[in-house]
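Researcher: Good morning. I'm working through a list of sequences from a screen, and I'd like to move beyond sequence-only analysis. For each chain I'm collecting a predicted structure so we can compare shapes side by side. This is the next one on the list. No need for commentary yet; just the structure.
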Amino acid sequence: MPSLSPAVAEIRLAVRTALADLPPGATVLVALSGGADSLALAAAVAFEAPKGDIRMLSLTVDHGLQTGSDAVASAVRERAAALGFDARIARVDVAGAGGPEAAARDARYAALRDAATDARATAVLLGHTLDDQAETVLLGLARGSGAASLQGMAPARTDEEGLRWMRPLLGVRRETTRAAAAGLDVWDDPHNIDPRFARVRVRERVLPVLEAELGPGIAEALARTAEQLREDAEAFDEMIHETIEDIVEHAEAGISVSVAALAANPAALRNRIIRLVVDSEFGVSLTRTQTLEVARLATDWTGQGPIDLPGCTARRHGGRVIFTAR
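Model: Good morning. Structure tokens for this chain:
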């Protein structure tokens, strides 16, 4: 018997650890593009899932952005079926704000969510690797979008509908998935080497320069940074929720926050409270500039009038900052 390759063993262990959190009889949906990362993930799931009596589905999303994408999706489905998956395809229209990358991502995640809901899946498994995490952190740093973006992608999270989104390979290098997927007829997406996309430029140009100039281990360091920031954010979130219970009240057509409490808190906590209140009540995210303008209603009050925000308006009335729907 040939020995198990270290790459396959590493990925199977990562998948086994992730699946251990799921109950016997659960259904998992693997997002399968046909690339090395997702194929290595699918092969490991096919090996590990039967041990826990876990039902396996795969979904290949055809974005229709390249000639012959339907044939590629059909071929990937066949590979998944050969591994024992209930293999499916979803064809989506890619349109929307934020550029083609963002629109394709939104369409893909919507298709995965719909397929998981239809199949009553417990979890969706995604093939993001440590290298993807490092790229995400660098992109967030370049955009100046704050600590939230520098946290990168969470290894696991549960959405509002109770669906688990899991990334078992987030601690695995891309070169490992490539080695593990050898012989699985990998499809290499041309978009993954197209320099029009910022993520490709980070992957092909920026990270190699950082490795060359600063030494090896940059990707691992960026991933560790993301993990540490997520830990800090989780602790912060607990503090915020405890604080909000005491300082927030429902108001007509909205919600209000105590001016004195906002002013008394440190800036970092005050700004997080404002963002969380607006997000939870109105489902919108504030920019840093918008957040600071709202904070001034508590910390630098000079009689300024209402502030127009996405989906709501903030104004000071007496000893409270009141947010009302627009």
